[in-house]
Design goal:
Layout: E1 2-5, E2 23-30, H1 37-46, E3 68-74, E4 80-85, H2 91-101, H3 103-108, E5 114-116, H4 122-125, H5 128-132, E6 140-143, H6 148-154, E7 158-159, E8 164-165, E9 174-177, E10 182-186, E11 189-198, E12 202-212, E13 216-221, H7 228-238, E14 245-251, H8 262-270, E15 278-282, H9 287-295, E16 320-322
Parallel strand pairs: 1-9, 4-5, 5-6, 6-9, 13-14, 14-15
Antiparallel strand pairs: 2-3, 2-16, 3-4, 7-8, 10-11, 11-12, 12-13
Length: 323
């Protein structure tokens, strides 16, 4: 069953209250999208370049890893709700990461409320089979901008041109989160779908906001193609708690493929105006961007460098941050 969910409508000048939670803990199941960037770029070029559709490009599965995080929301009443953010890329790699972080047991036992797909890119979505082997009926929340190929992928689609197939069809509900406003998901947790064209002929990305009582707002993103400043500014305008920036987690899409430009460096510098108390930037946040954050004295959360992640400057595979 596919349901299209309209966002809550907010009056201009009247920010929306989303409630509050006691704490949010995010575990990076995997933040490594792929192993070899030059190889990834060559395969993209061979398939038609950045404007070509990902569903017709053949990428080497041996170079694939994937982005996926476990979000645990502790309510004011002491209950814990769990969200799986994205599904990674290589199903076998993701199965290993699920075992290493205990996500496999949570999926089997029904301990995860839903899978939240930030966007359609292959390193966040093509590993869906690893999730569905363990929880084929898990509810999935997708951006309302998802292509028909993405919906077919959930149903067990195959794409010969790309050399991929999802062998475990999804049997649960799919909710298309339409753009245009704020969706309340849990007490203190909301989602916003940003409608914009992004790399590989994909459209739209949705991100999460959590209001932690007595602390402020935590912004959680998969790749932040909408821009991290837009992500934070949206909350300041549209959410009652948005003016109190507390935490930032996820991929910020700042120089993920090449050297950081001066414009991208300006974006990193502009983050300082929000006064974040914890920044756990990983995945597609380039190493140069993280280094500049540290140089500027931002409260960057480091990691262990284990599980395939390179270095300890950012939150890596198997590492957690509590907001």
């Amino acid at each position: 069953m596919i349901e299209a969910r309209q966002p809550l409508v907010h009056a201009t000048g009247s920010p929306l209250a989303i409630g509050a939670c006691r704490a949010v803990t995010v575990t990076s199941v995997s933040e490594v999208g792929w192993w070899d960037t030059p190889r990834m770029m060559e395969e993209m070029k061979a398939g038609g370049g950045p404007a070509a559709c990902q569903w017709s490009i053949r990428f080497d599965p041996e170079n694939a890893a994937g982005s996926c995080s476990l979000i645990e929301v502790e309510g004011l009443d002491g209950t814990t709700r769990r969200i799986l953010l994205d599904a990674g890329w290589n199903p076998e790699y993701m199965a290993e990461r699920f075992r290493a972080t205990g996500v496999d047991r949570l999926l089997v036992d029904g301990g995860i409320d839903f899978l939240y797909l930030s966007h359609e890119h292959l390193d966040h979505f093509w590993g869906i089979e690893a999730v569905l082997r363990l929880a084929p009926e898990i509810p999935i929340l997708v951006p309302g901008t998802l292509r028909e190929e993405g919906l077919a992928w959930l149903r067990g689609g195959a794409f010969p041109a790309a050399g991929i197939a999802n062998r475990v069809p999804h049997r649960g509900p799919v909710v298309r989160m339409l753009p245009g406003g704020v969706h309340r998901l849990l007490e203190g947790v909301a989602s916003v779908t940003f409608d914009l064209p992004i790399l590989l002929d994909i459209r739209g990305e949705q991100s999460l906001y959590a209001n932690v009582a007595e602390k402020g707002l935590v912004c959680i993103t998969g790749c932040c193609h909408q821009g991290v400043l837009n992500l934070v500014d949206y909350a300041a305008t549209h959410l009652e708690s948005g003016a109190r920036a507390y935490g930032l987690y996820g991929g910020l899409h700042i120089a993920p493929f090449a050297a950081m430009t001066e414009e991208q460096a300006d974006t990193v510098r502009a983050l300082g105006r929000y006064g974040f108390r914890k920044i756990a930037a990983n995945h597609c946040t380039g190493a140069e961007a993280v280094a500049l954050m540290r140089e500027l004295g931002y409260p960057v959360v480091g990691g262990s460098g284990r599980g395939g992640s390179t270095g300890t400057a950012h939150l890596g595979n198997g590492d957690s941050v509590r907001f």
